[in-house]
Amino acid sequence: MTAAVASAASAIADAVRSGVDAVQAPLTSSTSESNSKRKRSALSLTAPTPNNIGQVRKLNSVLFPVRYSERWYKDILKADNVALSRIGLYNDIPVGILAARYEQASSHPPEIGGINIYLMTLGVLAPYRRRGLASELLRNLLSVVRPGGTTPPIVGGEVVVPLPSRENVPVPEEKLPEPAKLEPVEIEETKKSKDAAAAAAKANGTKVKAGASATTTPAKETAPAPKRYRYAVQTVYMHVQTSNPEARAFYESHGFKMTKEIKEYYRKGVEPQSAWLLELRA
């Protein structure tokens, strides 16, 4: 870590510490078991929200060589995407981030609904590493979406491109349902209202003008809830800069395999530009 990055990491921790100084000191204990328990009790995860997205920006600026667009931050806050992303806390201080997204699996036609999970970012500030937080973040993601399993029910159109149209492949003779037809409910109800108004007017000895109705405000139609589907998860994958063998070893310890090295993966100005592609499959 360069002096500038170390300084920035320290600034973030100072900004969110709010007077908590204990996290600066290494955890000590008379036994390794109690030390491990204290570490675990200090770790927690929370979902990104509009209120804490600023902390995600700060963490990204320190941890990664890429600047993320405004749309990137909006996307991880979408209702379906937010289940894939977590902020790692140490003693309630944001010190780590994992963000992932759904992607259409290229080996599946859209009708099947097979998807990949792309792990966009996973990082922990240097002073808080080797405490198990990165593993906790990754385990949480794989508990939600794991290759060979299915996603939680999601509205595919918001997070998967292109939108899977059906959960299963239609057989040739199967016909898609006809579009719903509007029944003349309003017409029938209007006729009944007019008849009732005429009857009431006749009983009271008054006349009702043509076209008058006893109906006041028509009932508002409720928009149907969007359909949600579970999609088959094919793979979880990510790119790791080739200058970071420790990160590669970390993912491999969790079952990921390096499948290829991509030259000039990162934009100019990021050195090195090459990256490893790592995948986890069923």
Radius of gyration: 28 Å
Average pLDDT reading:
74
CATH H-level name of the domain at 67-164 and 226-282... which superfamily? Gcn5-related N-acetyltransferase (GNAT)
Architecture of the domain at 67-164 and 226-282, according to CATH? 3-Layer(aba) Sandwich
Task: Say how many strands there are.
Answer: 7
Look up the CATH topology of the domain at 67-164 and 226-282: Aminopeptidase
Q: Which secondary-structure class do the elements indicate?
A: alpha+beta
Envelope shape = elongated
What does this structure look like?
This is N-acetyltransferase domain-containing protein. Residues 25-49, 200-225 are annotated as: Disordered. It comes from Tilletia walkeri. Pfam families: Acetyltransf_1. InterPro entries: Acyl_CoA_acyltransferase (IPR016181), GNAT_dom (IPR000182), N-term/lysine_N-AcTrnsfr (IPR051556). The protein has a 7-stranded mixed β-sheet with strand order 1-2-3-4-5-7-6, with helices on both faces. It is an alpha+beta fold and 282 residues long. Mean pLDDT is 74; it is low at 1-6, 14-33 and 161-190. It is elongated. The protein has a domain at 67-164 and 226-282: Aminopeptidase, CATH 3.40.630.30. Helix content is 32%, strand content 19%. The chain contains 8 helices and 7 strands; from the N terminus they run ααβααβββαααβαββ. A hairpin with a 2-residue loop joins β2 and β3. The longest helix has 20 residues, at 185-204. α1 packs antiparallel against α3.
